[in-house]
Amino acid sequence: MNDAREFMHALDVVRGQLQRLARAADRQPSDELFFRVFEETLTDFRKNHVHAFCLSEHPDQLSQWRAYSRGGGYALGFDAERLAHLMRQHGFTLARCIYHEAEQLASVRGPLEAALLP
Known about the structure:
Blueprint: H1 5-22, H2 31-45, H3 62-68, H4 80-89, H5 101-115
Helix pairs in contact: 1-2, 1-5
């Protein structure tokens, strides 16, 4: 994450989709508890300390050097499968960052809608 706002943005995307679903005309009365608990969880989640270890899928990307090297630096290479395995062993998740808004919305909408299926 480039700054703390990125984590808050992710939570805002989830909250926006949650609110969109809450306004849907076809929702069930039993869904109210789901929405209330999820909203409370999002609010509490903002208090967590999140740490990121950012990588690039591209081994030598000029934009990364321009943004992060500040005139010098080193590139470290990792075996993605081994790194993912090691992270899982220690309770961490290796996930791809989603920068396009349509993808962000879709990645949140699907699981939320699935959680509300009767």
